[in-house]
């Protein structure tokens, strides 16, 4: 068998195993140089073989080399396609995992939002029930308010002319004009109206003279109005503050 004179140099060429298992990691340039050296050895071997073959054998050898090259290219393409599919599966799996995590996070957030909404709805229902109960209690209080006002008026305000007892006659020349001590029914009626107005919800036991005058004048003559106020002051059913306002007394005699 014919051998190349340079076959002894083949053992010195670096193989892929040598480059991978070396002490230092091989660079891309080292791979390129080793590939060029092996290509040169392949060309020399093919030329030496071609010189020992006939024309038909050289054509068959060339065909064999071309078929081997195409087969190697197709095998490399298949390996590349398989690697691409594997990378695509990995990438799709990563995307699917991310989508699954995002969907799980969205479901968790939706569940939390639904829990918050349910809790808010329960709180609103509780508050609505409390509001309904409070409205019912308020309506009941409003229904009993007129009766309470009537009781208060019966306790504070004279409900009959007998409650406005005639004032004791003062000594002669006491500097009090007789007309302010009038015990006529009309004066006592106006005095009772003043008391009712003072005890009502518009005054709550306290009112200024202007408010009383606005309530009674000009329906009541001003002299009669003044006589009624004087009657209430002298009978100590109403007291007058330093500011001029009138305050209603309770039945015990203390100011309200």
Spell out the blueprint of helices and strands:
Elements lengths: L6 H4 L5 H5 L7 H24 L3 H102 L28 H15 L6 E2 L1 H8 L5 H13 L3 E3 L5 E3 L8
Antiparallel strand pairs: 1-3, 2-3
With helices defined by DSSP (H or I, 4 residues minimum), what is the helix count? Answer: 7
What is the average of the pLDDT values? 78
Would you list the SSEs in sequence order as H and E? HHHHHEHHEE
Specify the overall morphology: rod-shaped
Query: How helical, in percent, are the residues?
Result: 55-70%
Low-confidence stretches: 158-162, 176-181, 251-256
Largest sheet: 3 strands, antiparallel
Strand content: under 5%
How big is the Rg?
60 Å
Please give the number of β-strands.
3
Query: Structural class per helix/strand content?
Result: mainly alpha
Termini Cα gap: 140 Å
How are strands sequenced across the largest beta sheet?
1-3-2
Task: Tell me what you see in this structure.
The chain has helices at 7-10, 16-20, 28-51, 55-156, 185-199, 209-216, 222-234; strands spanning 206-207, 238-240, 246-248. The termini are far apart. With 256 residues, the protein is mainly alpha-helical. It contains seven helices and three strands. The chain is rod-shaped, with a radius of gyration of 60 Å. 67% of the residues lie in helices and 3% in strands.
Main attributes?
disordered C terminus; three-stranded antiparallel β-sheet; 67% helix; mainly alpha; 256 residues; 3 strands; rod-shaped
